[in-house]
Every structure is written in C-alpha cells, then in structure tokens.
C-alpha cells in the first residue's frame, strides 16, 4: 500500500518560466518521505539529527512529463522497497489531484544506512523495517 | 478573524545549525498568505501570473524568538489590514501547535497593487477587498 | 572542453544533517548551466522567459559520493552532448577545489526544445548549437 | 569600509512573477555575510556548526524598490555595526552592477551571540570583533 501525500504547489516552488523549478520536484518527494516517516511514528527531529545512524541519499532520479503550476493540487504516491539490510529505494509518482491515470512526474531515490561519524554502512534500524513493512508493496519483508 | 494555517517544519527548511533557516520563516508566512487567498476563492495560478495587476511585497520584517526544528508543527495566524486603496499589510504570528501563549516568531509584510508593465499604482481589485473583509480584524472595511 | 564553474557552499544549501541538502546539488548544477549560457553570450533573462522557445528539463539524475559542508569550495565540470536536433544532455561532475581525482557528486540532465504554448518539440535555436560547440567534448557537432 | 559582494541572479532565485522571490533577497544578503566572514579568515563550517557559540538572527527587515531578473548582476554592500558586547546589526544595500546611485533593495539583520545549548547571551568572540573592525564604518570599535 503506497503512502499518499497531498501537496499544494506554492509560489516559492515556481521559477520565472511560470512552473515548478525542476529540483523542487525532488524536494516535494522528500516532503512525502518525511510525512511517511511521521505517519509510522518516527520522530523527525531525532531522525534527521541522529549522530549514531544516518540514512543519506546516494542516488536520486526524476522524470518530468507535464509542468506544475502555482496553486495546483498534487498527490504524491510513495512506495519503498528494501534493497539490502543497509539499503532501500523509494519510488514516487506525482499525480494531479483528481486524475490518477498518468503522472505529471516520477522519481526515485536510493538511501543507505551509515554511521555518520565514520561513514561506514550499518544495518537499518528497527523503526525503518516497520516503516518499510507499512508502505512497501511487498508481502515478504 | 485571523486565517490560521498549519505547517509542518520540513528537512529542507532547516540549515546546518539544526533549525529553520531565517529567510524560510518568511517563505512559510507567504505560504499562509497563498492558502488564505485560495480559501477566499482566488485562483493562485492566475493571481501570480496576472499581467494586468500585480501585488508585490514592498517591505518584509520578521522577529525570531525561539528556534523551530524539523518535524515541529506550527500554526501561523495571518491578519491583513488595509492601508490605502492600493496597499495592505499582513501580520503573521507563528505558534507551536498546542501552545498559543507566546509566538516562536512574528512577521509582517506590506503589499502594493500595481500595473506590472508600467509599474504604476492601481486600486486593489474587488477580490482583494473580499479577502481583506474575510480575514481582517476590522469591522469597517 | 568542459565549462568549469566555481561554487562556494552556502549556509542556505545545508540542512539539519550539517551537509548540502540533496536536491540543492541539482540546483548548483543548474547554476553552472546558467553560467555556461552566459559565457556563450546568451541573455539569461530572455532565455528563461522566452514565450516562443523553451528548453525544459525532462530528466535529471544525481549520485552522491561524499558530503559537502558550508564554506567548501567546489568546481563543477559541465559537458553538454547533442542527442538529436531537439535534445541535449548535460553531464556534471562536482569536485572539491584542489582535488580533481574523485568527484564528490555527479549528475546529468536531459533537455528538450519545445514551443511552450503548444508544448510541441522544436529544433534547437542557433545560439544553443553555438553553446554546444563551445563546451562539448565532441569534434563533430 | 563596506564589504562588497557580487551576485548573479539565478533562475532558482526567481518565481512565476518572473522576478526574484522576496525572501530570497534576504538569503542573498546572508550569502554576502558569509563571504565577509570568509574574507576575515573565519572558517564557515566551524562557525555555523559551533556547539559552544552561536550568533542567530533575531530580526530581519527588507525593502524592495525595484525587481531583479534572472541573469542580472548585483552588488551587495554590507556594513556591520556593533550594538552591544553581545549584539550587532548588519545593513545591506543591493545595487545593479554599474549603477550605484539608487539601490534595488535594502535590508538589515540583527544578530545576538548565545550559548546554543542553554540559549543564554554570551559576549561576541574575538574573531567577530576583528570582522566588525574590518567592515564597520565606525572608527571606534
């Protein structure tokens, strides 16, 4: 079951071409990720300033099919997938509200769990397994 | 009656000091302004790309009392005040959700209606009078 | 010959994890693109608000190898490649200044030339051919 | 003697009205502040993640006289003033390059030195006195 995040396009998201600035689409996806973590009971303040465990993004990728304008209402569908005990991937599809046949944009990010001090890989903490179980497509995590 | 906008602090809002980057507080206030316009039935896409009428900000000011952290829930109270037939001011107070006695931050912006091509003042359009009536403290607009 | 753009990491680029927020790496690459256009004599104001021709990004992709911190000096190497008469790709490599052996990050974007009103493909304008000739690796454009 | 910072307006700075988004003007001023600190030999990475001393902004204010467009070259004149042993103010004037008679925008920020853990005031560290001496108008610091 994907996590679904509703987002209104804001003036600050746009650029002088009148549409959402390309890199801001990835920032919107990250907002959806944060909302999905909070929905699984994860404390965001601790999560993003944890000195023992960090889960930085190692790769991000986004396709732009149709432009988004200030005031538009979008729905971001988020689906995480486990890659290994230290890594997961998140797929994002962004739809105009009320029209879920073809996305405006799609993206994915890849995340790896590390000890941020020594920058070595660590196994994902228990709370991330819970989060993966909750929002993943797979029955087998 | 002020317009009240609920906003979650996101990772992107923060900086390396671990709290919201100062200029982003004004951007959050502008989000509340956009939400108040939409709540009055104003089409944001047309509003912000109108070639006949624009209402740019001429002054902005913000006080920071306490820091905001990723994941925090804030309530932004927005109150517009008419200054002249071409100008209004918006006051913002930002509270931590569940604690409305002392704001974390307060701000105001001043807006003037112009013809953006010739950059001369114009009277505020009817929809802005409606918006002012709806969210202003004053009984007399 | 790649275009090389020097960029200092700023406080605003960072997030509460103390390093550059992931999507801002793509924004830095876009800055390098803008600087390369200006270096080829292209007027940026006209370029980005042209109502006859637009060259939106259709795909963007970025890998993160090592974090970047506030105050760091980076060099962004930009290399465009022609894909078709309507499309090009830009490759970016970001190095810490003074250490060009292994990039901190790499990215690429894909751009397609369209008429923004009807959103149909158009051939790239002459100025973009000049820009491609100037900064591309290829001898054969 | 003010510190002068040269800044090109970038596509990301703009919004769908075709000009720089209002809050980004304050972010540009902060960039000038960072550049002035670096010019006084201050290490920005340490400065902005120091756990013993922080110098947050308590107030910011900005006036907008004329719009700024993508590709425009601006000069930001920065002048700090000591307020007390714990506080200083920075005045900013933003000029179009090549026209220094009337600013496009002006701003100021107020900063207070604190211990970030207990959030109590502290005296400004020696390096900030040096920075104030270097860029302040006053002869008497």
Could you list some keywords that capture this structure?
homotetramer; alpha+beta; Thiol Ester Dehydrase, Chain A; five-stranded antiparallel sheet; two-stranded antiparallel ribbon; 3 helices; 23% helix; DHNA_CoA_hydrolase (chains A, B, C, D); hydrolase (chains A, B, C, D); 1,4-dihydroxy-2-naphthoyl-CoA hydrolase (chains A, B, C, D); 4-hydroxybenzoyl-CoA_TE (chains A, B, C, D); HotDog_dom_sf (chains A, B, C, D)
What does the model show?
- 4 copies of one chain form a homotetramer.
- Chain A has 141 residues and is an alpha+beta fold.
- Chain A has a single domain, classed as Thiol Ester Dehydrase, Chain A (Roll).
- Helix content of chain A is 23%, strand content 34%.
- Chain A is built from 3 helices and 7 strands, in the order E-H-H-E-E-E-E-E-E-H.
- The first copy, chain A, is globular.
- The two termini of chain A are 13 Å apart.
- The relative contact order of chain A is 0.24.
- The mean pLDDT of chain A is 94.
- Chain A binds chain C through residues 15-17, 19, 21-24, 26-27, 30, 48-49, 54, 56-64, 67, 109, 116, and chain C through 15-17, 19, 21-24, 26-27, 30, 48-49, 54, 56-64, 67, 109, 116.
């Amino acid at each position: 079951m994907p996590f679904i995040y509703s987002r209104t396009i804001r003036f600050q998201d746009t650029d002088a071409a009148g549409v959402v600035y390309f890199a801001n689409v990835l920032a919107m996806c990250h907002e959806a990720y944060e909302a999905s973590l909070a929905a699984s009971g994860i404390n965001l303040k601790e999560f993003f300033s944890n000195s023992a465990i960090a889960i930085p993004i190692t790769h991000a990728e986004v396709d732009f099919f149709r432009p988004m304008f200030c005031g538009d209402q979008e729905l971001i569908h988020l689906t995480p997938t486990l890659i290994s005990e230290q890594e997961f991937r998140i797929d994002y599809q962004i739809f105009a509200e009320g029209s879920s046949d073809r996305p405006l944009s799609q993206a994915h990010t890849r995340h790896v769990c590390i000890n941020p001090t020594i920058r070595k890989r660590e196994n994902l903490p228990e709370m991330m397994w819970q989060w993966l179980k909750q929002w993943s497509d797979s029955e087998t995590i």
